[in-house]
Amino acid sequence: MTLRILCVHGVGDHHSDLSWQDGWRETAKAAVLRWDPGAEPQFDFVSYDDLFAKYPITVAGTGEALAKLLKSGISEGIASLGERIGGIFGRRRGFLGGLSEKVRWSAGMVVQWVENDRLRRETRARLLEAVRKHEPDVLLAHSLGSLVTYDTFSLRENRGRLDGRTVVTFGSQIGNPFVRGSFGGRIQPLSAKRWFHLYNDEDEVFAAPIRLEDPRFQQVETHFDIEGVDHDALEYLGHPNAVQRIWREIAQPAGRDLARKAAVRAVDALRPRAKRRALLVGINAYPDPKDRLDGCVNDVFLMSSLLQEMDFRPEDIRIVLDERATAQGILERLGWLLDGTRPGDERFFFYSGHGAQIRTYGVGETVDGIDECLVPHDFDWSPERAVTDDRFYEFYSQLPYEARFLAVLDCCHSGGMHRDGGPRVRGLSPPDDIRHRALQWNAELQMWEDRKVPSANRTIDADYAGQTGGKRRLGRALSLRRLETRAYDRERERRDHHGPYLPILYQACQEDQLAAEYVHGVTSYGAFTFCLAQTLRQKKRISFQALRNETARRLKKLGYDQVPAVLGPKKLLAKNVPWHAAAAGK
Q1: Residues 342, 403: contact at Cβ < 8 Å?
Q2: Per-residue DSSP letters for 73-125?
């Protein structure tokens, strides 16, 4: 069998030194022949180094590029990378300068490609020409080459050109949020017969996993840890998991395709399908006694009882409380909640505990923004041990548009507010060394004042914008994904999608307010959660927007100075809460 393979290289000098081609050829050929000794793989290569040479990168440019990629590198794999090499989220001093030259220039080339429309057009044309000339059965695309490949064939006018072909992406930055923004904020399935995405969580060149529910897509874990940045193309192509799960199917397409479909049907038949799932998190017993709350665990049980009245099955509701609600514990359970969500599925997330704000850093390690976050039990004022806006976004942004996801957050994010006296509030005050990041000295007044930060919401939809531009409120991570508005909308249209999935999100209070606790007789609850639950139990039918309004009315009547917010697509906010309506019809 003749098998034509087109290879698209990644970052580096692949034009003057062609030895890389021998390595790709030998590794792929050995993998194919293992499964089909009679195969005749033929290899062609496409290079685009000469196109980049027309647009040189400066050393300063690599620094800016690193900041952009690192700041948006918030997937689980990139988060673990941050812990290993200095913390992508809360980077230590000298972190950018400590990265290898390869990583720095890789960042420069990736960002240069993302932001240079002319260069992107030229690389698309180069790849299309190679596909027309060689008519490959398989495209192997590494690193930056995977971006060129996805960019080319996710466009509406080129989508059919992958019909009948297999695409393999590896060491890829496609899923990096900064890069994904250039595709309109969402990754769509390709029209290829199969798309395999090899992912190594040790890869330090901004590689990212892809969350994509499509029968033609498969992400394959190809973990390796070698000397260097773990970005080597041959390690990916020759990895045992790649050989077993990808090359076998490529070399034996007919039988393997039938076997794969049968296996998928068998797994689907065995897998418990939960159309509805709920994750409820409550934390009272924070390690520091002065931070402890009273009503959060009660909130979880109250919300669980309410959901079960609305026909959620007990086995489809997971709760995590107190010391088990670590950052890792919450993120793992968010994966359970949202991974594998299909059109028509319904998902619910509830959090009751503290909220906080973390200062973020840009080029030169300077403070350039504030991230809101949920505060896990092991919170230490670093984003690695927080559930930040960006990490939350990664879980829901790729959900099917036809799915329904509702999140309810009973916490506040006004870090620095005093908690002395009056009702107990659900926001942490930072220690003095953390608080210093938010201050600057006014020599004229001889006083400390708030440090000014640039707006992070200047291009965001009004429905998702906070009141103060420097704060990125939880659930509004879309602000990072938006490019200049016209360009962003143009990319969505060209790729036939509507941008990132937007959930319906309830927050206990406005960003300049506090979320308080309420004592019902002798039992503590979150004031917002208690009023929300009362409203749902007493109203037979109610829309998402009306639920917010009525909850706000009850809070005001009880004397609480907090006004809840609801965010989401306007068309959905006008619809009735579906589970509530179903329960009311019993």
Answers
A1: yes
A2: --SHHHHHHHHHHT-SSSPPTTHHHHS-HHHHHHHHHHHHHHH-HHHHHHHHH
Query: Do 181 and 102 sit in the same domain of this protein?
Result: yes
Closest listed residue to residue 345, CA positions, set 402, 278, 397, 394? 402
Residue 546 to residue 525: CA distance in whole angstroms = 22
Q: In this structure, are residues 474 and 452 in contact, taking their beta carbons and an 8 Å threshold?
A: no
Residues 326, 252 share a domain: no
In 3-state terms, what secondary structure has residue 223?
coil
The CA-atom distances, in angstroms, between 42 and each of 24, 34, 162 are: 12, 16, 18
Closest CA to 14 of 57, 59, 45, 60: 45
Instruction: Catalogue the E-assigned strands of 411-482.
Output: 439-442, 447-450, 471-472
Which of 112-121, 156-165, 478-487 shows the lowest mean pLDDT across its residues?
Answer: 478-487
66 domain-assigned: no
Mark which of 269, 294, 316 sits at the end of a domain.
Answer: 269
Query: How many of the other CB atoms lie within 10 Å of CB of 65?
Result: 25
* 287/250 same-domain check: no
Q: What average pLDDT does the segment 296-318 reach?
A: 94
- Could you tell me if 248 and 281 lie in one domain? no
84 pLDDT above the threshold of 60 = no
pLDDT of 12: 72
> Which residues form the domain of 346?
276-584
Q: Is residue 555 classed as helix, strand or coil in its secondary structure?
A: helix
Residue 133 lies in a domain: yes
Q: Specify whether 322 is located in the same domain as 259.
A: no
| pLDDT of residue 552 exceeding 90 | yes
Judge if 213 and 301 occupy the same domain: no
- Residue 447 and residue 376 share a domain: yes
Nearest Cα neighbor of 208 from 199, 196, 216 is 199
Q: What's the distance, Cα to Cα, between the start and end of the chain in Å?
A: 62
Contact yes or no for 463/568 (Cβ under 8 A): yes
What tokens were used for 578? 């579906």
CB contact at 8 A, 86 and 73: no
**Per-residue confidence (pLDDT) for residue 428, from 0 to 100:** 56
Judgement on whether residues 363 and 460 belong to the same structural domain of the protein: yes
Give the pLDDT score at 465: 30
Closest CA to 6 of 116, 107, 148, 191: 148
The pLDDT assigned to 71 comes to 55
Query: Which of these, 474, 579, 530, lies nearest to 294 by C-alpha position?
Result: 530
CA dist., res. 197 & res. 246, Å (int):
10
Q: 87 pLDDT band (50/70/90 cuts)?
A: very low
Task: Count the domains in the chain.
Answer: 2
CATH of the domain at 560: 3.40.50.1460
Least confident of 240-244, 404-408, 490-494: 490-494
Q: CA 508, CA 548: separation in Å to the nearest integer?
A: 10
| 2 confidence band (pLDDT: 50, 70, 90) | confident
pLDDT of residue 430 exceeding 80: no
Which of 214, 237, 269 corresponds to the end of one domain? 269
Give the separation between CA 19 and CA 13, rounded to whole angstroms: 11
